[in-house]
Amino acid sequence: MPLDIIKFAFVGGEVSPNYYGRSDLAKFDLALAEAENWFVDYHGGLSTSPGLEFVDFVQNDTYPTKFYTFKFSSDLANTNVILFGHEYIRFIQDGAYVLETPKAIVSVTLDDPGVMEVTSHGFTAGEWVKPVATGEMVELAGRTFQVGTVTTHTFELLDPFGNNLDTSAFTTYVSGGTIARVYTLDSPYSAYDLELLRCHQIRDTLRFTHADYPIYNLERNDSADWTMALEVVGNNLTAVGTITLTTLKSGGWSTAFVITQVNQEGIESIASDYAFITNVTDYTNTDNGGAVLKWTPIAGAAYYKIYRTRVVRDTTALSRSYQVGYIGQSKGGHFADPGIIPDFAQTPPINTNPFANGRITYVDVTSGGSNYTNSSVVSVTDPNPSAGGFVGYAIVATTTVSSTGPIVGIIIVNEGHDYTNPSFSVTIGSGAVLEGHLGPATGNYPAISTVYQQRQLYAAPDELPLTIFGSKPGQLSNFSISEILIANDAFEHTLDSEDVSPLRHMLPTRGGLMVFNAAGVWLMSGSQGGAITATNVQADPQSSEGASQVVPLKVKSDILYCEATGGKVVQLSYNDQIKLYAGLDLSLLANHLIEGNKQIENWCYANEPFRQIWAQRSDGVMLNFTIIKEQEVFAWSRRLTRGKFTDVISLEEGNHSTVYTMVKRTINGRITKFIEKVSRRDFTHVEDAFCVDCGLKLGNTTPAADIQVAAATGTGIAVHASANVFVVGDVGKVIRAGGGKMTVASYVDANDITVDIVRDITEVVPFSDDYPKLVDSGDWTMDTPVTSISGLTHLEGEEVKVLADGNVIEGLMVTNGAITLPLAATRVIIGLGYECTAKNLPMNIQGAVVENKQQRVMGLSMRVKDTRGLRAGNDLNDLSIIKERTDEAYGEPTRLMNGMTNLAIEPIWGPEGQSYLVQRDPLPATVLGYVIEAEVGDDSK
């Protein structure tokens, strides 16, 4: 029985064999059994995966590495991929390492190794350098070198792995070359700790956290000027010194003041020591009397805040134990208090650094001693030279302000850091014995961070794995608190989780702060959806399925995360009505892709142009996941290469999401790591389709002039340039402009040539009888056809696939970093080949039962777009290829096919009725849908 079965979309992607019997599923007719090196375009088509462009080598590539992104704005100058290696950091911009200022090359010897002379180069052995201009020694172009033995003005050239670079067969160098050092920054991180290193960007600063390291900030000053420094937690402002008090009228009452300084950013210092004044009137109850305060102003202070105790009788034991409240502020070193009533809800800050090791958290008075006064000063020493920062004041039990007594307590206003065995002493008095109680000496560094509601949030130090710390609002380094806690104080909130698995992620969302650990997901917010403060917080469970260490992704308003066991990808979508994030298993139909030891290790979301997630799996396979929730497009596929993917990251560069990958390959017998970026799949002609891995393309020349071509087709056509860009030697060169291709036939003058048009110009003026448009400078190229292609040292000893002027060439080996083409070309793309294989699901027909019948596919009628070289068949060893060539000019490549095409394939009877779509050439293919011409026979017996 002959049948036609239509497949009009592929938005189900690759599904698990577990679902082959579930033809009742809505996505069954839209899915595939295999999608290897194909991806699902969210419009519904199935396209071959774009290639990978070689970016550069990786230094110390036997160590783990890690990518991070920096994006200040979308323009290229403000975006970077940041590479962390073993104790170093490098920066990638627009597909290349960031370099320092180039230096002129004086000479290069023809020797083994070659020696380069650069006056006062300043390079150090082991550093990496790259030529910016090569002069006549073209063999240097595009290469990366390690600096060998150095003198003041010379250095040996080594390859990236430290082997001597033999330049004896290179072209003789004369002049004109420059070379630059690859900009590199020292890193405090071991390569083996990078897996758990977390990063959060705050404008021009990247903040890094790791449970085994203090907090570091990587700050950009310029493209090749970054600094890596420890984050300074705490206000660390100088406290106000001695306060001089003057009584306006004598009486039998006493009070005390403290003062803080506030800087230009609104950060308030710790309080000064108490300044006591006696023999004043009770001026808060009368208008008779008062006090005047004077102190030495502090450079950089914007203003000062003044606090005071109650006014008490001289016979009262006024001491530092009395609370102070805010009474006013001053812009200078002077303040008059006429009797202001203190606001005891506002108290001076207590400086805290919850991430400091060895803090003095409490001082126990084991013996109070005697003869101490309110002027006694506490000091501390410690055998650890790094210890410091403690500030505390003695509380003395006296009968009057000016009398003496024992110490009964210590007020701590700064806990300090790195104390191991503190020893205390107190002036004016004797006999007191003080014992300091220390916070943990280790385990205080936060593992994760983010910024939420203008607070810097840290979480999950080893000592407090479920605790979140929040700074004061707008003061991202200030974790001060008040004696009486108020809403805008810093906070410490601990999650109520039965499982003490450390928090792994914090993610700001529209509903609140999402918090993840291995046991579940919580939504933290203030009550009734308000802000999280020191006095207002609640955490509502959202899911009992916890998260792995893979950082969750934001896709529009949704959150995607990998479940803790690694076998599931969950989408959380916020419901405004119930104020809850509901979960959806996005990997349910493709669970075979991430089961067992095939877990996702790194992933990223690339919004433009294909709205895909790129997920690097633990076995080195890359997964592509196209996701458009509103169109119900959830399609998984696999991206394989001749090697293993070890990392992936996406960065918005202009209006395009560029995906960068780290790939481990065995090249010429050596296991090597490469940085490779996913090529853009926006070609307009087959010769520009980048469909190889670890590949490079031949550079093109863009003369600085506008040109006008006199006709869209023909020979001997005049071309006029707006500037003097032509020379006699241009005859025979190939020009590409306006969608056309032409060969320079004759030279007229510096502004004019004639050309023979090989491929007609397609960009023409409307309603002009095909008159070509003016081509702007930068939009056309002129190149000399070549047969020898160099600069391929990264593929030394490997067989490569080549697309030369749109023609496929195979079987070429890279020798001495070069290949020789059988025919000269001007558009050349070279790299490692990969095969794209798609397989349809077992045959299913609505309203009929065919699962128990013999089946065979006899042909396919496909609607294709920008396709060439596509094969199909029932057996991978017996595939038919689409016949495509029509009326192309001699020597021109077969153009890309668009529209319907029919292909007869060798029919084979079997129980499933499955067939393959295969691309084996470095060419693109997109299938928008197809009709399977099949036949169903008797039952399977």
Description:
By secondary structure, this protein is mainly beta. Among the domains are: about 1-50 and about 835-940, Jelly Rolls (Sandwich); about 245-350, no CATH class; about 360-440, no CATH class; about 695-700 and about 785-830, no CATH class; about 705-780, Thrombin, subunit H. The protein is built from no helices and 76 strands. A 7-stranded antiparallel sheet has the order 11-17-14-15-16-13-12, with no helix packed on it. A hairpin with a 7-residue loop joins strand 7 (about 65-70) and strand 8. The radius of gyration is 36 Å and the shape is elongated. The two termini are about 15 Å apart. The model has no long low-confidence stretch (mean pLDDT about 95).
Number of helices: 0
Total DSSP E strands: 76
The largest sheet, given as strand count, sense and whether it forms a barrel, is:
7 strands, antiparallel
Helix content: under 10%
CATH fold type of the domain at 2-50 and 836-939? Jelly Rolls
Strand numbers in spatial order across the main sheet? 11-17-14-15-16-13-12
- Cα(first) to Cα(last) distance is 17 Å
Give average pLDDT, whole number: 93
Gross morphology: elongated
- The CATH architecture of the domain at 2-50 and 836-939 would be Sandwich
- The CATH class name of the domain at 2-50 and 836-939 reads Mainly Beta
